[in-house]
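Suppose a colleague, Dr. K., hands you the sequence of a protein chain of 363 amino acids and asks what its three-dimensional shape might be. Before reaching for any lab equipment, you can write down a predicted structure in token form. Begin with the sequence itself:
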Amino acid sequence: MTDKLVVALLFGGRSSEHSISCATAAGVLTAIDREKYDVIPIGITRDGTFTLQPDDASLFALNAEKLPTVEDNGTRILWPENASTHELSVTENGVTRTLGNVDVVFPILHGPWGEDGTVQGLLELVDLPYVGSGVLASALGMDKHFTKTVLQQSGIPVAPWRTVTAFEWRTDPDAVRAAAAELGLPAFVKPARAGSSVGVSKVKQASELDAAIETAFAEDDRVLIESSVAGREVEIAVLGGRPGEASRASVAGEIVVTGRDFYDFAAKYLDAPGIDLVCPADLTAEELATMQALGVQAFDAIGGEGLARVDFFLTADGFVINEINTMPGFTPISMFPRCWQESGLSYPALIDELISVALARAA
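The predicted structure, expressed as tokens, is then:
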């Protein structure tokens, strides 16, 4: 029997999506095939400390009353000293010991300082193979303004938007309000670089705009004001192929909003009412084929690797892409694994595939 592969699971982090990353870790720790993999759970605290955490999914499970977090237990992870070794070490109580060689890193981090190319850059510096997109695609996918810019240049429909900097808002708020008026109401106000609907507001009246912008600026120094698109909210999961293989897309899922303004943080992760997740979505064969092709086209346009979830609106005039998430959630109620499960790829098999593709890319 061959030796098991060693997977370093990175989770937590400095972003406002820290707890969601922890919940994703719980999902992966539960599902990963222990016959094939040894797992090193590396939790990043809210202040950015890399710690060795217990291999216990229950510690990081999503709980609406107390969101999971990475606690600083005093351990410190030491990354390889150069690109010629894949050896990790940990310091604890003044003693340093080896954790052995790592075959692949699984950075299930959401938001800035994790999903945005920063951790990917760290892993590139020490030449550690990792799951998911590289530095450029991660940075593009994290930044809604540049995602839209690239997709628009590639001929892919996106919702009209205006990006506002903190400086613009401080120095000429009337110009920002005028730009928002041109886009029309209702509109969405979003941080350029945040996820899980953190800092997002739906603006129905002009009097709500200022507060929505301030909420978004609490998360980032650039904010998008985006036209509301009337249509069904549908999502598709994309997997990148091995070198020479084409990317492929799953069946679609649909978010049916019945009792909320939009699919917000509470609905996504705290099981708040007013949202139904339907998978597979009720689409015609032609609609699904179009959506799959657009999802793969968008993934390839940003240079995506490994995985992504692509979010659409299905309007009377066709599909409009809303966002690309290069590290979508793996929580028990997340759409990405569910879409693949409905496509015939189980949760453990999905993890196998992501690790296999990452290692093939690094070979």
